[in-house]
Amino acid sequence: MDKRKKIDESIPRSIPEVYLTRLLTSKGTVQKYIEEFLESVMFLEETSYPPVIKYLFDLLEDEATRNGVGIYLFSCIPFSFIIFLQVNDHNLVQQWKSNLYVLRVWVHLVKNPRILLDVDESISQDGNLSVIAQTLMDCFSFSEPSLGAHSPSSRLLFAKEVTRLRPLSTDLFRRIRRHPKITEETFVDELNAIANDLVGCSGSTIALSELLTWVRGNGIRFVEVLSQDNDSIDQRLPQRLSQVINLCLEPDHIYSTIPEYSH
Fold it and tell me: What's the predicted TM-score (pTM) here?
């Protein structure tokens, strides 16, 4: 968290005029690919959608109905006011979907490429990806971004693209809502198919490094937990984990001489 805060503070909010030409040139180089990415997120060229997305969106719709979103109990409320509530309730459900699909999935993946790719982070990379993530969030925002002379240049770069794509983001949720419902069996089959597709994925040294970092801090306690489970003992998991701990610790580490668990 502190590292990301330092990175954000190191990126200037306004770009000196001397760099403006280079900034616009760089945007022109990558604009085609960024627009294609944004359009792919909105399925502009597709007529079918992943069953997982359809199932989860319908789940949110059902939760909205179950919790009374869109249900009006007072018939004496003026009609114009009822219409106002309907719009707000519709926006609320759409905001749930947007948070699930955009913030929890795409923005998270864009700002954290190490989840998918075996790459190292850098300040310039983080800054560039943050611009793309912010543009994506602006495209799915209900309120039109208020931009002015003091707005960050990163948000001004794709202002025209955001204006074009914002109405299309609302249309995305409408199109998915019109599709036939997905059964729970289809949903489970889709999850199994996704899991099977990931079986052959190659390993990641970054992911391995993160796992070893976790083991260094929590491995001793985890060995103790595994040693109390009969199934884990039968598979020699406590002994295997203790071997990993001994291999990944520095020679002068406080736990570097941990004895291997033996049953």
Answer: 0.61
